[in-house]
Write a structure and sequence with these properties.
The chain has 385 residues and is an alpha+beta fold. The chain has helices at 15-26, 39-44, 53-61, 66-71, 105-118, 230-240, 243-246, 292-313, 317-320, 322-344, 352-370, 372-383, and strands at residues 8-11, 31-34, 50-51, 73-75, 77-82, 85-90, 100-102, 122-124, 129-133, 138-141, 146-148, 151-154, 169-185, 193-196, 203-207, 213-219, 253-268, 271-272, 275-277, 283-284. The strands form four sheets. Strands 6-5-14-15-16-13-17-20 form an eight-stranded mixed β-sheet.
Length: 385
């Protein structure tokens, strides 16, 4: 016979699940997090690092920003480099005047785990959920045991079991592009986030800390990341970043290399019975505009408040409209991400389609360089969630 494990069961100890868990614990609600990986794994897993202004607000207002305040770095400039030359956009002076705060996801996750445990929360690491019964708010574990609560929150990503338990329409798009995502033990080579557009394909530069830099290289679909040696990586980055013209990159050991296929999906609805989805379980977004983790935190805030209203005050109206409240924000982020994909990538070749598409790309970049109205609109989408 199942026993009540907690009021809220959370699948997944990523940013979405942990922010939500901390918020509901602060509201006096019993919460149990179940994570299939070990604690050491999730606290080392390098993912997103750019937090939008609203994400920083959520963390600050809920007492979850101590590490971020001590070690986060504000970034307010991005640059575009290509055969059109180079130009910078200082977006802190554009749009709503907002900035990003760079704070590696593994550091944020470490902070959130520590805070949740300090709040007498419980996390079951290395515990695999094989099935979710949304009608009964029940998790079935790999060893056959069951956990039961009042509500279940699925934050276990695109390959987790949570999204499979929600009967929903999945709207998806394969952008037909892949990036080689790299982490280098090398100081940033420039102050700005750099988007380089080159006939060989896109390349990106994003600082993570004073000694770690994230790079991206567009690669053919199906590329084996292990075929890219450190030497090959740096040679190609130098070419696409036009280092001979703008200055050599600061190199170092490549400590992570993986291929990311550029795909997007949105589920509708993102709730069923007692089960609610947040983060990549609900919607997967391409990394072209660094929206994924920020969308996850926005959903976590919204859902945590709705759960607190239902559990502490018997008011389930916010839970009932969770999908309706979340999806407009998700689609706006998807639209901006799709626009960025078209801005940064263009087909090779000299056929009419390729030339036409590259000409459109150049026109977009020139408009972004020259039009203040376009720059303001870009800044609002780039930092806003």
């Amino acid at each position: 016979m199942s026993t009540l494990s907690a009021d809220v069961l959370v699948c997944g100890a990523g940013p979405a699940g942990l922010v939500l868990a901390n918020m509901v614990r602060a509201a006096g609600i019993r919460c149990l997090v179940v994570e299939r990986r070990s604690r050491a794994h999730v606290e080392r897993r390098a993912r997103a690092g750019f937090l939008a202004a609203n994400s920083v607000r959520v963390l600050t207002e809920n007492g979850l920003a101590e590490g971020l305040r001590a070690n986060g770095q504000q970034h307010d400039t991005c640059a575009f480099r290509g055969d059109h030359g180079e130009f910078e956009l200082k977006y802190s002076g554009l749009g709503h005047g907002e900035v990003h705060t760079v704070y590696p996801q593994q550091d944020l996750v470490r902070d959130l785990i520590g805070e949740f445990l300090d709040r007498d929360g419980e996390i079951l690491f290395s515990t695999v959920v094989t099935n979710i019964d949304a009608e009964r708010a029940e998790l079935v574990l790999e060893d056959g045991s069951r956990l039961t609560g009042r509500f279940v929150v699925g934050c276990d990503g695109q390959h987790g079991v949570s999204r499979k338990a929600v009967p929903a329409k999945v709207y998806q798009r394969d952008h037909g592009l892949s990036w080689l995502a790299l982490l280098a033990e090398a100081p940033p080579s420039m102050a700005a986030v750099m988007y380089a557009i080159h006939p060989n394909g896109f390349a990106g530069h994003m600082a993570r800390s004073s000694v770690i830099t994230r790079y991206y290289l567009q690669v053919p679909r199906g590329t084996d990341p292990d075929t890219w040696s450190d030497e090959k990586v740096w040679d190609e980055l130098h070419v696409r970043m036009r280092a001979d013209h703008y200055g050599a990159l600061r190199t170092g050991k490549i400590i992570e290399r993986r291929v990311v296929d550029m795909t997007s999906h949105v589920m509708d609805p993102i709730q069923h019975a007692s089960l609610f989805l947040a983060g990549d379980s609900a919607s997967l977004i391409s990394p072209s505009a660094a929206k994924g983790a920020n969308l996850a935190l926005m959903a976590a805030e919204l859902l945590a408040k709705a759960l607190a209203g239902a559990i502490n005050h018997g008011d389930d109206r916010a839970l009932a409209r969770y999908t309706a409240d979340c999806l407009p924000r998700i689609w706006r982020a998807q639209e901006f991400s799709h626009w960025m994909i078209n801005l940064l990538h263009s087909p090779a070749g000299n056929d009419d389609h390729a030339v036409f598409t590259r000409s459109l790309q150049r026109a977009r970049l020139e408009s972004l360089r020259d039009s203040r109205a376009h720059q303001d609109h870009f800044a609002e989408g780039y930092v806003g969630i």
